[in-house]
Amino acid sequence: MGVSIGELAVRFGCELRGDPGVQVERVATLADADGRAVAFVANPRYRQQLAGTRAAVVVLDAASADACPVAALVCQNPHATYARIATVLHPFPAASPGVHPSAVVAPGARVDPGAHVGALSVIGEGAVVGARAFVGPQCLVGEGAVLAEDVRLIARVTLCGGVEVGARTVIQPGAVIGGDGFGFAQERGHWIKVPQIGTVRIGPDVEIGSNTTIDRGAIEDTVIEEGVKLDNLIQIGHNVRIGAHTAVAACVGISGSTSIGRRCMIAGQVGIAGHLSISDDVVITARTGISHSITAPGVYSGHIPHEEATTWRRLVGRFKRLETFAARLKALERRQAAGPDQEKHDD
Amino acid sequence: MGVSIGELAVRFGCELRGDPGVQVERVATLADADGRAVAFVANPRYRQQLAGTRAAVVVLDAASADACPVAALVCQNPHATYARIATVLHPFPAASPGVHPSAVVAPGARVDPGAHVGALSVIGEGAVVGARAFVGPQCLVGEGAVLAEDVRLIARVTLCGGVEVGARTVIQPGAVIGGDGFGFAQERGHWIKVPQIGTVRIGPDVEIGSNTTIDRGAIEDTVIEEGVKLDNLIQIGHNVRIGAHTAVAACVGISGSTSIGRRCMIAGQVGIAGHLSISDDVVITARTGISHSITAPGVYSGHIPHEEATTWRRLVGRFKRLETFAARLKALERRQAAGPDQEKHDD
Amino acid sequence: MGVSIGELAVRFGCELRGDPGVQVERVATLADADGRAVAFVANPRYRQQLAGTRAAVVVLDAASADACPVAALVCQNPHATYARIATVLHPFPAASPGVHPSAVVAPGARVDPGAHVGALSVIGEGAVVGARAFVGPQCLVGEGAVLAEDVRLIARVTLCGGVEVGARTVIQPGAVIGGDGFGFAQERGHWIKVPQIGTVRIGPDVEIGSNTTIDRGAIEDTVIEEGVKLDNLIQIGHNVRIGAHTAVAACVGISGSTSIGRRCMIAGQVGIAGHLSISDDVVITARTGISHSITAPGVYSGHIPHEEATTWRRLVGRFKRLETFAARLKALERRQAAGPDQEKHDD
Hints:
The structure is a homotrimer. In chain A, about 20% of the residues lie in helices and about 30% in strands. Chain A is α/β, with parallel strands linked by helices. In chain A, the strands form six sheets. In chain A, strands 8-11-14-17-20-25-28-31-34-37-39 form an eleven-stranded parallel sheet, with no helix packed on it. Chain A has a ten-stranded parallel sheet with strand order 9-12-15-18-21-26-29-32-35-38, with no helix packed on it. In chain A, strand 6 (about 55-60), helix 2 (about 60-65) and strand 7 (about 70-75) form a beta-alpha-beta unit. The longest helix of chain A has 25 residues, at about 320-345. The relative contact order of chain A is 0.06. At the B-C interface, strand 22, strand 23, strand 38, strand 39 and helix 4 of B face strand 4, helix 3, strand 40, helix 4 and helix 5 of C.
């Protein structure tokens, strides 16, 4: 299934340096690529690897083009262009339309004839599976859940009752969308469960990673807007809203009723407290804890990098004595302000 | 399925201000409620929203009652009363007793005739499913596992062999109860697996969140006492014991053999080291790491909130130089103590 | 199914103090053991419990042997010897070879006749299940995935297409191996998915915990080398390599393209940034964030332990004013250096 690099240049608006008739079949790294493979350089620090490559063609920007010993597809955003070329060469395998005989589809569910429902999946009463949607093996599409066209549930995805998923959204295995939010009322040292009657609405072009959990709303819905990208093992509490095109890395926890803006980037292991509001275009670096709202775009941090353990223990010791430091500093200032004569009298 | 607000007042011990014959059908937020809906105010900071509500009735406390423009159900603990009313109006859907034909039930399993076993679930040899228990689709009830009456496994819950679950306990999708604990003996740089032969015992009225994992004991059992509430993506190591009515928020990790007291509240992303003992009535705030036992009730913290990134980097720089600070402070004190004359001599 | 302690002594190279004919059937704690049980002491602090034990025999080292009131199996590494004895007394239950009638096996899959495939599992086209492999209930072995001999997928494990699993490796429920890596190219505030065409290769004798996720590589593969032990709820990003015999505790996140050495020990809730290199024999203590590469063996830390909340708040306040501290310290030093006369003139 070869494609000529001339066709790729035309299709993706690149300047081609080299023979347009060369055929490529796959993508590869600069180091491993052979004469049928496309490689790319998006980060200048990998430019030095260009010299040794045997790729058929390399996707790169103008600044790297002269250093390229083979054909080049020159463009402004090599990473994005590479992503598009890789999607042409390595398309998601087409799934045959139809319902696997081992799947359990409720009589009142509507499955588009062009959709695929995999082995041992369950489609609940009143659920809707849209055109060309792909429901992999062992998925659960709960009662009344709605999948728009071209949704892809890779495998073993759980959508609880009433969850809505927008067009082209991709959900990786183990994700649980629409489990109950963590809502309990306290009474005399016991907890009383508060029914969670909202649902989860997920926009189009969203991606949700493996084993990520998104809770249904307490009364209103939890909302993930279009183009949001969520990595693995993320927790999204009830009534959270995540703005369009925000990306969230793995192991992040977002507590209930917090609202995140559009185009934010939230790095790994960040935690965001509940009932907060985070503005658009906020970047939060890895392992930061957010305990109050952020009202202005910018970069926010809260993580102290590691040290060799004995050095670290000494620093922690100093930290724990900061109160003493403060008192000693104050005493020094007071005595210095008093001047040498008073000091004498003190003695 | 309407209920009169007079009946709700009687049933839940509220003072009713308004017409007892008004019928309600659902709960809603103050802002969205219409004339068939119950709303509530549990937090004084939402009291201002009362003015605009069109709810049929609002559940609130005496302090908020005068500000309520519609009927009121006045009580001491509006959140708890709301939870009970919401449960009446939005009950868990009754599941038909019986075993779905696609479920796989071992010949030696005992499923109560009033229990529900959903599509594509597996009930292992010797397992017991109690009266009115609800086993949702795609669950695994391992060999010899025991579900008491009214247990609800929402969907795709995994209970490994021998796990015991108390009455009325609810487990959300993706939870894994009774996987092997992380037990390995080291020998010459390799690891030898230690068989994990205990199980997990879960009390009544517990709630376990989506994709939470609770490991089986190494020799003795891991124990979750009655009324414990666990949020999503929590890790509970082998041989841990969690005391009754303790609540644990999402993304918490509790290492092996640690014992947590009763009525504790543990916030999100907290980590608790192994072999520790945490007293009753301990509150641990978000993102705190607990590395030694806590012997007294109280509130414990260990998280530094975020800053704008350049401010944070400067603070980290100062932190990393705390040793230098200490030395400079000492030098200042020494010179000051020596007095001005000695200082002169030093020069 | 008794075994004589004499036989255990011979088989595992222990010195036996006691009657070799005594039969044992199970393992137990020192406190609970009866006359048919083996207990062990690996940690000197549990030695005091020896006095009261009624075990048939205790596995321990020479230093503890004299304090043992019952028979003793004396050896250099009691924990490792205990692990081996426990494995003899509590073997993994033998599964009958064969494919459960409810499993869905693709026509082109190859399942060894000695392998077990459990209820409602799916074996994809072109997948291979090796000799004596155990595939528990509700597992997915994706298209072209390969399980070597004696692999054990406990239950509900998801292996996506092409994943390779080495001999004797054990994977706990809920683990997802080979979900897509988190790869997106940014373009004008939107994200374009980068196809993830690598896979995951897992060596022999690996253990993977419940609900842990290991992403497939972007172009090349994600690699877990032999003997690696991964606890629950761990995230391994795309293109990561983890060296042989490294152990990783629960809730750790390892970002994409990072390489971890051999025989490392990584404690709970650690986070490691992407594109780093961690040397062999590195120990990282709990909750540490690693933001740059580690080139030398050793112990590394970055966590500040908890305090009672009011003390902690005061310390955080001091920390946030470290800039002010620095300025005050500098001012003191400047004035002290200037000497008393200049101070007078300043006034």
